[in-house]
Specification:
Blueprint: E1 5-6, E2 14-20, H1 32-46, E3 51-56, H2 59-71, E4 79-83, H3 91-94, E5 97-101, E6 104-111, H4 114-117, H5 127-133, E7 142-148, E8 155-156, E9 161-165, H6 166-172, H7 178-189, E10 193-197, E11 215-218, E12 222-226, H8 236-248, E13 258-262, E14 269-270, E15 273-274, E16 283-285, E17 288-293, H9 298-309, E18 314-319, H10 321-324, E19 335-338
Parallel strand pairs: 2-3, 3-4, 6-7, 9-10, 12-13, 17-18
Antiparallel strand pairs: 1-5, 2-19, 5-6, 8-9, 11-12, 14-15, 16-17
């Protein structure tokens, strides 16, 4: 890791959270009312602690979103609307990855292929360029990288260690060896260690095992991860194997990480299809952790785990059952912007 270039951890100070408002032209159309309630709850929670930037597809979407948020008594002084016509709302994967560079920043713009070409992504792949063209980040340089990588596939501790899954990166780049991918990620993201997990994955997840559904770094050499304690569940063997891999990881100075296993929610089905209800898909804010809640008894247990992993931060539950219908959750629809970045 160079002194000039650094990939900050999510728990470092932020200026804003970036999201995109769902509308009838997105895949949310069939259950738009339900998912709007989740977005309203999300914006209400974010604006208690910091600004929220909301991409809107057109003037009508902006007018409607503003009316819904005002009716929910959201602090609109902390809301900024950004015009951009997007394919979908998974901004963790299409949004900007920001590095600190000396006293400024560098914005990385990786190629977004909608998780290996599963969906249309032409407009979403232009999101970062469009945000920069609107002057939202001032003179911050944008580095376009012709390499498919989603923000949900990588997790950093802010000190030069990256955590990711082999399944996802191998799926995107089947011809590349682990050594080649390690070198590329280390170079672009200013990391000097890449830790790979070979196990882990959730039914109902079409990201090919994004790390942000499975395991996350926390302050002071800790890892929070999705556990499964039900031997009868189809996830049990795979998540047990992942837990063993995580327990074997070592910090930079050779110590085991402090581990915080998250509880396992009961199966949530949609027409017989298992949905990916992961508590690891939480979002860290200034002074808070927003936790995906699924209306399950395990919600309260997960909140307790996150409170211990992030002491001094308020844990706020955001209802996320509508999100997992489209195969993602809370962290997947958001992207944090580091403090000092916006112009």
């Amino acid at each position: 890791m160079t002194d000039k270039l650094r990939f900050p951890a999510e728990w470092e100070p932020q200026s804003a959270i970036l999201i995109a408002w769902p509308h009838a032209g997105t895949d949310w159309a069939e259950r738009l009312g339900e998912v709007e309630e989740t977005y309203i709850a999300l914006v209400a929670a974010v604006t208690r602690f910091q600004d929220c930037w909301i991409c809107v597809a057109d003037d009508d979407v902006e007018t409607y979103a503003e009316a819904r948020l005002r009716s929910a008594r959201v602090d609109m002084r902390r809301v900024r609307f950004i015009p951009f016509d997007y394919d979908d709302t998974w901004l963790r994967d299409s949004g900007p990855i920001t590095l600190r560079e000396g006293g400024g920043f560098r914005i990385l713009d990786f190629r977004f292929t909608a998780w290996g070409g599963k969906f249309e992504a032409g407009r979403d792949d232009r999101l970062v360029e469009a945000l920069c063209a609107q002057g939202l980040f001032g003179a911050t340089p944008r580095q376009r990288i012709d390499f498919a990588l989603e923000g949900g596939a990588i997790e950093t501790d802010g000190a030069g260690t990256l955590l990711t899954t082999w399944r996802c990166l191998h799926e995107r780049h089947p011809q590349a060896s682990r050594e080649e991918l390690t070198a590329k990620l280390s170079g672009w993201l200013a990391q000097d260690r890449v830790l790979w997990l070979d196990h882990g994955g959730l039914e109902g997840d079409d990201t090919d095992a994004h790390i942000d559904t499975l395991a996350r770094f926390a302050p002071d050499d800790a890892i929070v991860f999705q556990a499964c304690d039900d031997p009868a569940d189809t996830h049990y063997a795979e998540l047990q194997a992942m837990a063993g891999e995580i327990a074997a990881l070592r910090t930079r100075d050779g110590r085991p990480y402090r581990l915080f296993p998250l509880p396992w929610a009961r199966p949530i089905l949609d027409g017989g299809r298992r949905l990916a209800a992961s508590y690891a898909n939480f979002l860290v804010l200034n002074g808070a952790v927003l936790m995906p809640a699924y209306g399950d008894p395990a919600d309260a247990l997960a909140a307790d785990v996150l409170a211990r992993a992030y002491p001094g931060r308020e844990v706020v539950q955001v209802p996320c059952r509508p999100l997992i219908w489209q195969n993602g959750s809370l962290h997947c629809i958001t992207m944090q912007l580091p403090a000092g970045l916006p112009a």
